[in-house]
Amino acid sequence: MNTSIVLRLVLDTNVVLDCLVFRDPASRDLWAAIESKRVEALSHSLALEELRRVLAYPQCRLEERSQRDILARYAELTSLIAVPSGFSRTSLRLPPEFPRCRDGDDDVFLALAYHSGADALISKDRDILKLRRKVRKFGVRIAGIGELNALLGDG
Q: In angstroms, rounded to a whole number, what is the distance separating the alpha carbons of residues 101 and 118?
């Protein structure tokens, strides 16, 4: 593994969209850190499948070829994590008392952060961000995009 990687992060779908589709200036440092290998973006087939599905939403305004290119680019720059046997969208293999999101689709990202031992789950989702304190006792850190510089040691 490349020793220049300083952080291992799970990115929720909205953060990935900000980086690769909407090119939100707030996500520019994150994407630059991923491309320069200062950050290792962690993913799983379930997260990549959600990204594929969301890229087709009308609000993304992407032609099919662009959707495929964006998904391929993201998949190329992410590392797939190992998960426990039997892991699936309906069986996330989390401890019974692990906090859950109001939107069950977001639980996948919490589970990926938990199982991968990621340094943080980066999210813009208010419901995920509200769980920060509750997931900390399980070794999961949740951070907003605005906290990235502090995570990277730049601020």
A: 18
Beta carbons of 81 and 46 less than 8 angstroms apart? no
Taking only the tens of pLDDT, the chain with its 155 residues reads 445 568 999 999 999 999 999 999 999 999 999 999 999 999 999 999 999 999 999 999 999 999 999 999 999 999 999 999 999 999 999 999 999 999 988 999 999 999 999 999 999 999 999 999 999 999 999 999 889 878 887 65
Question: Which domains does the chain carry?
Answer: 7-152 (3.40.50.1010)
With 0.85 as the threshold, say if the pTM is over it: yes
| Beta strand pairing call for 7-11 and 39-43 | parallel
Is the sign of the CA dihedral 131, 133, 138, 142 positive or negative? positive
